[in-house]
Amino acid sequence: xxxxxxxxxxxxxxxxxxxxxxxxxxxxxxxxxxxxxxxxxxxxxxxxxxxxxxxxxxxxxxxxxxxxxxxxxxxxxxxxxxxxxxxxxxxx
Length: 92
Prior knowledge:
Elements: H1 3-10, H2 13-24, H3 28-31, H4 38-55, H5 59-66, H6 70-91
């Protein structure tokens, strides 16, 4: 078994949510709230992106975890994905 497989087996949605909260320096409880303050929205979007990329969960499953419908999850995921792609274009 490779290290990558071992690492991904240890990941959970809650661990990824905590990782996003730490990165953006926001409390997990705020990240899970309905607030629309920009730093918290960005942290929530990042958590959504991580869960989708790392765990390959469905939009519906992520929505259930995060407390949003699948359309909001898709929007959050696309916001971060587009930002990453834009940053890569700017770097190259």
